[in-house]
Write a sequence for this structure.
C-alpha cells in the first residue's frame, strides 16, 4: 500500500505538534500520524499533513508496584517490549508481528491470541494527547473511564496520542511449541488446546494440514501432543517469544467473530476456499481467540471472540478472494479488524457496534472540525464534514 | 562421498492439477521436485518459475542439508508468490553445489491415481 502525502513532518516537541494541528484546523486541512506502515488499510492516507512521531521514544516512569509505565507514541511494539523488559515489566500479549508502532496497534484494536487475553488496547490506562483544537489533553481510567472507552480504540480519530500510560505485568518467561497436525486432530482438540495461555492455529488450504502454536508461562503446563509432529520449541522473555519474525509481504483480511459462531464460520470458509480459491491461494488462514473488552468500537467489544484471517501474497489479486469470503464473515456477525482489508462503510459498521453513536459523540467533542477525519476515515464514520 | 549432479536444472512441462480425490494431504494432486544432495555441504537452491504470459517469478529459496534428500511440492511454494494450479509453467533450478533433481506429478482428479516422474533437464 502506498500514497503521497502533502507533507511528511517529523516534529520534535509537543508544542510544535500543537501548533501544527491548530494550523491544519484553521486551514481546513487534515492531519494523520504515520505508524510503521504495517497496516494494510488506508487509515493514515492523507493529501495534507502526515506526522512521524519518531522523536517520541523511550519508556518513562516505570513503576513496579502499580505495574505501569509510560510509552511515548513513536515506539514500535518491539522497541517498547525491549525497553519495558529493562525495567522488569512486560505487555500481557502481542501479535505475531511487532514492527507496528504500539500506538497504532492499540488504536486499531490489534491483538495476539489467548482466550483469557484481551487485545493490546486493554493495556491503556491513561493518555496524553493533542485534540483537534491543538490542545493537550490528559485523561485516564480513573478520572474519566467512559471517555477512555472511546479513546482506547479510535484509530487516531480523536487526537494524536503522545504518551500512553500502560497497565503491564511483571516481566515473564514464555515457553513455545509448534506442531504440524491433521485438520481432524486440530478440530477434535480445539477446545482443549484453547486452555493454554496462548493458542492459535494456521490452516493450509493446499494440504488441509494445520500448524498449532502453544505458549505458556509455566513449563509444566506445556501439553504433550502425541498426534502432532514437532516443528519448533523455544523459551525466553515474553517479548522475544511472542512475535515470529517474517519478511514475507502479504495482504490480509481479518474478521472478529463471536466465539460461539466462529468455528461454524471457519468450516464454511474452509469449504469455499477448497472448492473455489486454492487454485490461486496457497497462503494459510490464521485462527485466534481473544478475550472481550469494553472499548466502544473495539472489534472484541462486549463479546468473547475468535478471529479468522485470510492472507494472500502482496502483488497477487487479493480482492477477488477477500470479497468472496467477506460475506461469510458478516453472515456470522463478524467485525473487521480496523487495520486490515475490508469493504465496510459507516452504514454497515454502525450496525455492528451497539455503542457506535456514543463513540461518535465523544469523537466529535475532541475533534469538532474533523481535522483527523480523512476521506477514508469519513467513509468509516460518515461524518458530514 | 563425492558431489554428484549438476548446478543447473530445468523442466518445461509444469502444470499442477486442480482436482484431487482421497485423503489430504496424501492424495492432493501436485507437482514436486526431489533434490538429492550427496555432498558434505548444504545446497542452497534457487527456483524460478516461468510462465507463458508474464515475466518469471523468483527466487524461491530452499536449502537441502548435506547428504540429504528433500522433496518440494510446487503447490506449497509461497514466497515470493504462490504458483497457481492449472496454469502452465516452466522451472529453472540452480544450486550452489552439484545436486540431482527429479520432477514428478501426482494427479488424483480421478479415483484411478496417475503418477508421472522424470529427470529434470541437467542444463550446465
Amino acid at each position: 500500500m502506498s500514497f503521497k502525502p502533502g507533507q511528511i513532518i517529523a516534529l520534535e516537541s509537543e508544542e510544535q505538534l500543537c501548533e501544527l494541528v491548530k494550523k491544519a484546523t484553521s486551514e481546513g486541512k487534515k492531519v494523520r500520524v504515520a505508524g510503521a506502515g504495517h497496516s494494510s488499510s488506508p487509515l493514515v492516507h492523507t493529501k495534507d499533513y502526515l506526522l512521524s512521531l519518531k522523536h517520541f521514544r523511550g519508556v518513562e516512569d516505570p513503576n513496579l508496584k502499580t505495574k505501569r509505565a509510560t510509552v511515548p507514541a513513536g515506539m514500535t511494539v518491539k522497541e517498547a517490549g525491549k525497553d519495558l523488559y529493562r525495567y522488569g515489566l512486560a505487555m500481557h500479549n502481542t501479535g505475531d508481528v511487532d514492527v507496528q508502532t504500539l500506538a497504532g496497534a492499540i488504536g486499531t484494536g490489534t491483538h495476539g491470541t489467548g482466550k483469557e487475553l484481551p487485545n493490546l488496547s486493554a493495556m491503556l490506562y491513561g493518555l496524553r494527547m493533542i485534540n483537534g483544537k491543538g490542545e493537550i489533553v490528559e485523561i485516564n481510567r480513573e478520572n474519566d473511564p467512559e471517555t477512555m472507552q472511546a479513546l482506547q480504540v479510535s484509530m487516531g480519530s480523536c487526537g494524536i496520542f503522545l504518551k500512553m500510560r500502560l497497565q503491564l505485568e511483571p516481566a515473564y518467561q514464555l515457553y513455545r511449541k509448534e506442531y504440524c497436525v491433521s485438520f481432524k486432530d486440530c478440530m477434535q482438540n480445539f477446545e482443549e488446546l484453547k486452555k493454554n495461555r496462548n493458542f492459535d492455529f494456521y490452516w493450509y488450504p493446499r494440504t488441509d494440514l494445520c500448524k498449532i502454536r502453544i505458549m505458556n508461562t509455566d513449563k509444566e503446563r506445556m501439553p504433550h501432543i502425541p498426534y502432532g509432529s514437532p516443528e519448533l520449541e523455544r523459551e525466553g522473555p515474553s517479548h522475544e517469544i511472542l512475535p515470529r519474525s517474517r519478511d514475507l509481504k502479504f495482504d490480509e483480511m481479518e474478521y472478529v467473530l463471536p466465539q460461539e459462531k466462529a468455528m461454524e464460520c471457519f468450516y464454511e470458509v474452509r469449504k469455499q476456499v477448497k472448492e473455489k480459491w486454492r487454485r490461486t491461494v496457497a497462503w494459510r488462514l490464521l485462527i485466534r481467540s481473544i478475550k472481550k473488552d469494553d472499548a466502544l468500537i473495539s472489534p472484541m467489544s462486549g463479546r468473547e471472540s475468535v478471529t479468522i484471517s485470510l492472507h494472500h501474497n502482496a502483488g497477487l489479486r487479493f480482492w477477488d478472494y477477500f470479497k468472496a469470503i467477506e460475506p461469510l464473515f458478516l453472515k456470522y456477525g463478524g467485525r473487521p479488524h480496523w487495520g486490515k482489508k475490508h469493504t465496510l462503510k459507516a452504514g454497515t459498521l454502525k450496525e455492528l457496534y451497539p455503542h457506535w453513536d456514543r463513540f461518535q459523540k465523544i469523537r466529535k467533542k475532541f475533534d469538532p472540525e474533523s481535522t483527523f477525519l480523512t476521506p477514508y476515515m469519513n467513509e468509516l464514520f460518515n461524518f458530514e464534514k | 562421498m563425492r558431489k554428484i549432479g549438476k548446478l543447473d536444472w530445468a523442466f518445461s512441462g509444469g502444470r499442477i492439477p486442480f482436482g484431487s480425490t482421497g485423503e489430504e494431504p496424501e492424495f492432493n494432486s501436485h507437482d514436486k521436485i526431489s533434490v538429492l544432495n550427496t555432498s558434505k555441504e548444504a545446497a542452497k537452491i534457487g527456483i524460478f518459475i516461468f510462465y507463458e504470459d508474464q515475466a518469471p517469478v523468483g527466487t524461491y529459496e530452499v536449502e537441502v542439508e548435506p547428504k540429504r534428500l528433500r522433496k518440494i511440492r510446487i503447490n506449497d511454494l509461497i514466497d515470493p508468490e504462490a504458483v497457481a494450479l492449472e496454469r502452465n509453467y516452466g522451472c529453472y533450478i540452480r544450486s550452489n553445489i552439484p545436486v540431482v533433481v527429479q520432477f514428478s506429478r501426482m494427479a488424483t482428479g480421478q479415483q484411478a491415481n496417475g503418477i508421472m516422474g522424470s529427470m529434470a533437464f541437467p542444463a550446465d
Summary: Residues 21 and 108 of chain B are 6 Å apart (CA to CA). Chain B has a mean pLDDT of 92.
